[in-house]
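Example record used in the benchmark description.
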Amino acid sequence: MYWIIIGLYNIVYLFGLVFYLPYIAIVRGRGWRYVFSRMFAPDLPVKTTKRYWLHAVSVGETNVAMAVARRLVKDGVEVVISTSTPTGMENLKKKAEGTYVIYSPWDFLLCVCAFFAKIKPDRLLIIETELWPSLFCCAYLGGVPVSILNARISDRAFSRYRRLYRIVSLKGLFFDKVDFVFAQDKRAMDRFLALGLDADHVGVFGNIKFDIDILEKDIDILGPIVEGRYVIVLGSTHRDEEEQILSRLAKRWQDRFLVICAPRHVHRADGIVEIATGLGLSAERFSRLNEGNALDVVVVDVIGVLANIYRYADVVFVGGSLVPHGGQNPLEPLYWNKPVVVGPYMDNFAGIMEQLKAESAILQVSDADAVIEAFFSSQDKLKALARAAKEVFSRNRGVVERIVKQLNDFSDETKY
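Model output (C-alpha cells):
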C-alpha cells in the first residue's frame, strides 16, 4: 500500500510541476535558474567524515538550521543546509560559514533521490515540520536516519494532518521512517503522538530559537536618525498591518517619534512608503537613507538587518499577528531585552506565547487600537516586560547542546 501511495503522489506531483514551474519562474519572477537548481542535484566535494543534511524552508527555519550547524561543525561534522526560498538562500549565504548551502529538491522521487546520491548524508535533519513523502521515501531507501528538530505542528497544519490521517496512515507514510522527533514543547509532542508517532521516538527538548546568537553590528546610518527619538519598530509585518498601525499613530504623532517598519516581504516597501506619505508622514526606504534624513518612518527594504535594528527600539510590534497569519517569531527583539507587543493571531508560536505570557514577558493585545495604547504604556511597565524577557531567555538556552548530544548518542549506537 505504501508504494502505491508514493507512486500516485509522484504522478500527481509531476503533473502539478508542469503547470507550477512556469508560474514560479515567470509570474513569480524567480527565474528558470531557481527552478533548475531544485531539479538537478548540486556537485559537492567528496565527504571525508560524517555529513548531515539539514533541510529548512525560509528565513526563520534557516536561522534554526544555522544554530545547529555551527555546533555540529565544531564536532567535525560536514553540514549541508538546504532551503526552498530565495530569501532563505540569501540568509544562509550571509551567515552559514563552514557549511554547504543548496536549494532543496522538488519533492519528485527522481529529483530527491539524485540529491541523496550527490550529498550522501549520514543523517537527514528536518527543521520544524517539513513532511514530504518523496524526501522521506528516499531517506528510507538509502538507509538514512531522519530526525525532526525544533518540531512543531501549528493548529492549521494539525487540522490538515488529522483529515489526511483518516485517509492514509501517517505512521506508515512518515513516522516509520523517523528516527527521533525533538519536540519544542509538550503540545507539539502530544500532536505527533496523536498522529501515530511511537512514544519512544519523541521527546521534549525545548525551542532552538532561544539559542539564537545575533552578531551585534552597529547600523551607522541609523545612529543620527534615532538619536533622541522614541523608536517604534514594526517587525515582519504583513499586508494591512502597516496601515492599521500608521493611521492610528498619525493621529497622535509627535516630532520625537520614529517608526522603523520592516515588512515580512521587502518588495512591499514602496507601497508602505506611499501609505506613510499619504498619512502626511515623511518616509524613506532604508537603502536610500543618508545622514541628513529627518524622517517619521523608515521602511526596511533589505534582508538581514532587522535582527540588529531591534537593538534601537524602545518598543516593538511583531507582525503577522494583527491579521490571521499566525504570527512571526517574537524572540529576536526579546533577545535584546526589548518590550514586545503582538496582536491576537500568534497560533504559529503557541508554545512560546504560552510560556512568555505566563512569565509576563510579552504583551498580547486584541486589535490595532490596543497596540497603539501599548506603545505608550508607562516606562515602568515596558521595563518590566524587558526584564522578564531577559529572565526567560537565560532559563531556556542550551537546547542545541542537548540535541547534538542526543544525535551523537544515536551515532554511537548505530556506529556511523
